[in-house]
Amino acid sequence: MSGNPESLRRKIASAGELQGVVRTMKALAASSIGQYEKSVRALAEYYRTVESGLGACFRASEPGTAIPEKAGRMETGPISAIVFGSDQGLVGRFNETVADHAVASLASLRGDLRIWAVGERVHALLADAGLPPAGLFAVPNSVQAIIPLISHVQIESESYRGRRDDARVYVFHNRPRSQGLYEPVTQRLLPLDASWQRGLSQVPWPGAVRPQIIGTGLEPLPALIREYLFISLFRACAESLASENASRLSAMERADKNIGELLDGLNADFHRLRQAGIDEELFDVIAGFEALVRPS
């Protein structure tokens, strides 16, 4: 037991206010997770649709003609890396996890590297690791705000790599797992090499009747590839946001538990201190009464 009743009252009031803020943030994180997880599920269906369309185009074209392989381009081309993190704190090791993963993955690559960071926190971590990003984008605060962000990222990345077919584009982000956990993942978006083409050509068509492709199969290919790149970045951002809010919810739950335990201790000290004061006053009253009734 330490302090006095007045100081304990102030501590209890401050802890109660902080617990209210934490619970508000918990509610916001829980409500945000729902919209991002729903977006990820919807994107998974659309992603499979785009993949099916690309596979149909590749099967309709002559083998090896859609995206020819060029020797050596994987070793010399410029590298664009997009790393998704967070602007705000209170997310545990969310930013450290994806930043460490990106630094370790990029260390094994050769070529002129340029990084774009989504989120101030991960931007600072990358700079501290010796990989200062060339650009910084604010983290979107809703599903609707993801589209403008991805458009800006694509413009920056395309202006850097130009029309070089040996350019490499990597995306690093956290992907949600079960029970509020997440894991860092890497996705290589470019170049679209022959192995990628063969993999998509093996994707089975979902229906019994295969589609008929107009012309040689290459006419709709550019539009499908643009959609493939856009949806890949969109999904990476949505998964990162879902992971961020899951991490924040977990951090706020731990903080709420710790504050609750602190409040229990402060309230117990306060009640013991009050009881000690009451006992002391009673002893004084009893001692005074005994002094008055004691015969002289």
Protein model, in words:
The chain is α/β, with parallel strands linked by helices and 296 residues long. The chain has a single domain (26-250), classed as 3-Layer(aba) Sandwich (Pyruvate Kinase, Chain: A, domain 1). It is built from 7 helices and 5 strands; from the N terminus they run ααβαβαβαββαα. The protein has helices at 5-60, 73-76, 94-106, 120-128, 146-161, 194-201, 221-293; strands spanning 79-84, 113-118, 135-137, 168-176, 182-190. Strands 3-2-1-4-5 form a 5-stranded mixed β-sheet, sandwiched between helices. The longest helix is centred in the last third of the chain and has 73 residues, at 221-293. The model has no long low-confidence stretch (mean pLDDT 84).
List the helices and strands and how they pair.
Layout: H1 5-60, H2 73-76, E1 79-84, H3 94-106, E2 113-118, H4 120-128, E3 135-137, H5 146-161, E4 168-176, E5 182-190, H6 194-201, H7 221-293
Parallel strand pairs: 1-2, 1-4, 2-3
Antiparallel strand pairs: 4-5
Helix pairs in contact: 1-6, 1-7, 3-4, 5-7
Brief synopsis:
With 296 residues, the chain is of the alpha/beta class. 60% of the residues lie in helices and 11% in strands.
Strand content is: 5-15%
Oligomer: single chain
Counted beta strands: 5
> Which structural class do the helices and strands define?
alpha/beta
Key structural traits:
296 residues, alpha/beta, Pyruvate Kinase, Chain: A, domain 1, 7 helices, 11% strand, elongated
